[in-house]
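Design job #97: recover the sequence.
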């Protein structure tokens, strides 16, 4: 179970790093502004959590909602620690809502990952 959650969390951060690189290049070399890509950043964030939950559910084969939820929870914890220790600030209400939705999205990904990956079926 722990390996599947780690695999999903790693997937989320890899997607986030690649997306950050792409967005930074777009901002640097085009006329785009940060406010013009906010929606795309949010969409990519939700997609990366869904994919991370999907990967953890597929790797774990059972209890996709637990695996996906754990993956989303670890992601939220890492972001919270980074923000709290690095910037000395807590989550705002808006961020709490976003991260709650991130956890739910990762749970949905985990459920689909188990079902698409052919999880254990009881006869």
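Job complete. Output follows.
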């Amino acid at each position: 179970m722990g390996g599947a959650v780690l695999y999903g969390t790693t997937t989320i951060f890899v997607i986030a790093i690649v997306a950050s690189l792409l967005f930074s290049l777009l901002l640097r070399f085009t006329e785009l502004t940060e406010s013009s890509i906010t929606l795309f950043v949010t969409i990519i964030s939700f997609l990366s959590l869904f994919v991370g939950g999907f990967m953890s559910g597929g790797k774990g084969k059972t209890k996709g909602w637990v695996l996906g939820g754990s993956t989303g929870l670890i992601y939220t914890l890492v972001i919270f620690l980074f923000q709290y220790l690095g910037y000395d600030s807590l989550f705002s209400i808006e961020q709490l809502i976003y991260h709650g939705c991130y956890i739910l999205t990762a749970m949905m990904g985990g459920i689909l990952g188990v079902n698409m990956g052919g999880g254990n079926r009881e006869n």
